[in-house]
Amino acid sequence: MEGNAGGNKRRRVYSVEAKKVAQSAFTRNYVNYLIPALTKIKNQNTTTTSSDFKNVKYEVDMAMAFSAEGFAWSHGLKLKLLQRDEDEAPTITTEKASSNPSLKTSSDEDEKMKSELSSLRKLIPGGEEIVDEEMVTELESYISCLEMQVNVLQCLLSLS
Amino acid sequence: MSSGSRSSRQRSHSTRISDDQIIQLVSKLRQLVPEIRNRRSDKVSASKVLQETCNYIKNLHREVDDLSERLGQLLSTIDADSAEAAIIRSLLSN
């Protein structure tokens, strides 16, 4: 099921079949995390609205990470958030060389593909860690969870 | 969380991704990204698919940011207790 080993960063191979994130499970987990977190923010709110946004965004991201356990991106997202919590820094994106000059593939199309792929990787939290074989499941779950997240947030906003 | 062996098998982005994987990835992305899915054309090149995917993800990120901001503003204007109760009630009744 969830391939979440205890903090071990060796290559985890996820089976493809069990990886569809059920919408109901995601939504329920998401709301269960976010609502109490927002209430907490509301109750401790003595500060300006700008830090409110940061706090809300943090919880929004955390809710996302917790609602879809077992993916490299959700793990990566948690790490990023926890690090941000510690050093108050904005999201950390490591600068990696996107194209390896020693690979002479001698094709423009190939080069373009590589650079597109690397841009895509950068958009996924923890993307630098994702091996090619996992890219498909990771992208699929990440995109569908992002969509679900948007739906949930729109829902919450429309209710008030 | 141990981050010790993080760099030991970093072969993913410095070696060439295999053609098979690209094909698989691109075909999956065709289904996932609405822009491409709705076009119903097989003529979209692989790199265009990747590009559209990047755009789509960026758009989703922006939308989440925007919604979070509105949510934050909302927090300061409503009574949390009644809002929470209302939200939970509505969601549970669906």
Please describe the structure with a list of short key phrases separated by commas or semicolons.
heterodimer; A: 160 residues; mainly alpha; B: 94 residues; MYOD Basic-Helix-Loop-Helix Domain, subunit B; 0% strand; elongated; bHLH_AtIBH1-like (chain A); IBH1-like (chain A)
Order of helices and strands of chain A: HHHHH
Strand content of chain B: under 5%
- What is the terminal-to-terminal distance of chain A? 36 Å
Our count of domains of chain B comes out at: 1
The coarse overall form of chain B would be elongated
Number of separate helices of chain B: 4
Alpha carbon gap, first and last residue of chain B: 38 Å
CATH fold label of chain B: MYOD Basic-Helix-Loop-Helix Domain, subunit B
- Tell me the number of helical segments of chain A per DSSP (H or I, 4 or more residues long): 5
The largest sheet of chain A is:
none
Unreliable residue stretches of chain A: 3-7, 95-104
Structural class of chain B: mainly alpha
Q: H/E element string of chain B?
A: HHHH
Helices and strands in order, then pairings?
The complex is a heterodimer of chains A (160) and B (94).
Chain A (H helix, E strand, L loop, with lengths): L22 H21 L5 H19 L4 H16 L20 H16 L8 H28 L1
Chain B lengths: L18 H14 L1 H4 L8 H32 L2 H14 L1
Describe the structure.
With 160 residues, chain A is mostly helical. Chain A has one domain (17-89, 113-159). Helix content of chain A is 62%, strand content 0%. In chain A, helix 1 runs antiparallel to helix 2 (49-67), helix 1 (23-43) crosses helix 5 and helix 2 runs antiparallel to helix 3 (72-87). In chain A, 31% of the residues are buried. Residues 3-7 and 95-104 of chain A have low confidence and may be disordered. Chain B is built from four helices and no strands. Chain B has 94 residues and is mainly α. Chain B is elongated. Chain B has one domain (3-93): Irregular (MYOD Basic-Helix-Loop-Helix Domain, subunit B), CATH 4.10.280. Chain B has helices at residues 19-32, 34-37, 46-77, 80-93. In chain B, helix 1 (19-32) crosses helix 3 (46-77). At the A-B interface, helix 1, helix 2, helix 4 and helix 5 of A face helix 1, helix 3 and helix 4 of B.
